[in-house]
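for the writeup, i need someone to sanity check this before i put it in the appendix. the sequnce is what the collaborator sent (i think, or maybe the updated version? ugh). structure was predicted straight from it, no edits. if anything looks off just tell me and ill rerun, i have time this weekend
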Amino acid sequence: MLARWEGAEFVVLLKGVGMEKSVKIAEYLRSIIEVEHFDEVNIITCSFGVSEYQTSDTLSTLTKKADEALYEAKESGRNKVCHIL
């Protein structure tokens, strides 16, 4: 499931997919977006924060982990995938 979260942020929910595969999917999305050319802006890059649901998570804690991973990706150079368990 893909949904717009805030402004230029989106959430991709992957049911039944573990961290390793989720990171690979995020990296695949990042790489295909990076090479696509868009008329208005030419090139777009994306940073991804990936988190995996744990039984102790709430929606708030799960999105907080993903947000922390996203900020790590942005602060460490952008156009990359970072994850937090």
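The chain has one domain: 2-84. The CA atoms of residues 34 and 82 lie 16 Å apart.
thx in advance!!
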